[in-house]
Amino acid sequence: MAGASFVGTTIEWYDFFIYATAAQLVFGQHFFTALSPAAASLASVTTIGVTFVVRPLGGILMGHFGDRLGRRTMLVLALLLMGVATVGVGLLPTYDRIGLAAPVLLVVFRLMQGLSAGGEWGGAALMAVEHAPVHRRGLFGAFPQLGAPTGLVLANGAFFAFTAILSADQFASWGWRLPFLFSAVLIIVGLFIRLRVDESPEFARLKERAQRSRRPITEVLRHYPRTLAIAIGVFVANIGIGYVFLAFILVHATTRLGVGQNTMLLLIVLGALFWIATTLWAAWRSDAVGRRPVYLAGSIWLVAWAFPFFLLLDTASVPLMLAAVLMLAVGLGLTYGPQAALYAELFPARIRYSGASFAYAVGAILGGGITPLAAAVLTESTGTTMSVSAYMVLLGLVTLIAVLKIPETAEQVRERRRSCARIP
């Protein structure tokens, strides 16, 4: 089950990230040609964030039906929705051919991706955790988490390959569409895997005992507001600083620092691979010492590394830039690995899909929704990336406060350790 969650979320995030990469590289010249080059670039990057407008809606809708009908059904729907939107972007005529309809449809497809992303993560995370033994919830829950950095590797790898194979004119004209169209193959593979997976045993028991919530999101908001606030807060730094890594440094390095596009794509891929490794380690470690200590270390790391990150990155020296990216990936992994298990443990099973999905979506809005745009505006208005570092510190402090409120007790840690000791 963990493997199936990993494959599904990887495909979802591949689709998500190829859009973000293409928005930085080519969308401005194809869909916003009526604007000046600078305005077109800004408008293109801004569309990356429009998904955050509908993520909570996706979380509410898929969370509701995930708690009522089952986790697997919503995961299949999320994958289909993301696939249709991604292939649609790959086939979309440009502004020169259909005028204003081109950017409008581009935004519509991006909103569809946002609806999908709002419900995808919660279902995949819960399917992995709810199939896991108690003493391995953190480790099993890491596999859907790996979908984000792995999807990033695949997305940037695809653009790296196509930009290497094609000439600059070929890539700018039509080659950028190929990663989007290739998604159709991945979606078929993902659907085949998800349709063969059994429903979550915890949901099956709820259904058998007629214990499903009739209005899960209402129950979350009414009876678990503090828990919801904690779940939102612990994600703010990870998603916000993650979007600096995912959606800002590529355009910053290539346009302001003069670093080659393929060089920067490779650095981001290496950083994502390190992110995968630290995510797995953090999830495994959280099963032994608890979620809060691992989160606490990651939150402090992200705050402490915010200024050194850009000081090294802005040197435009490839070894120093690599060090900056790898060390940032450590903090991202520490605050990402335990997340699925933590969310599952914060909310009761009857409202878990709704609670986890809504918290994830709102955390994404507060942390990542405006981060790419905010980072670009801060850099332009202040003339220095130190302002972006200060913004990263602010996000890190929000998460740090939430982490200190995680209601993990010493008894929960001891129970996980007892469970480990009983395993021969």
Notable characteristics:
disordered C terminus; 424 residues; globular; single chain
Write a concise synopsis of the structure shown:
With 424 residues, this protein is mainly alpha-helical.
> SSE order in H/E notation?
HHHHHHHHHHHHHHHHHHHHHHH
Helix content: over 70%
Q: Poorly predicted ranges (pLDDT <50, ≥5 residues)?
A: 419-424
Question: What gross morphology would you assign?
Answer: globular
Helix vs. strand class: mainly alpha
Mean pLDDT: 85
DSSP strand count = 0
Radius of gyration: 21 Å
Strand percentage, roughly? under 5%
Total helical elements = 23
The rounded distance between the terminal residues' Cα atoms is 22 Å
Overview of this structure, please?
The chain is an all-alpha fold and 424 residues long. The chain contains 23 helices and no strands. The protein has helices at 2-25, 27-31, 37-46, 51-68, 71-91, 95-98, 101-130, 137-145, 147-165, 168-173, 178-194, 201-208, 216-223, 225-247, 249-255, 261-289, 291-313, 318-334, 339-346, 352-369, 371-382, 386-404, 410-422. Helix 7 crosses helix 20 (352-369). It is globular, with a radius of gyration of 21 Å. It starts with a helix and ends with a helix. Mean pLDDT is 85; it is low at 419-424.
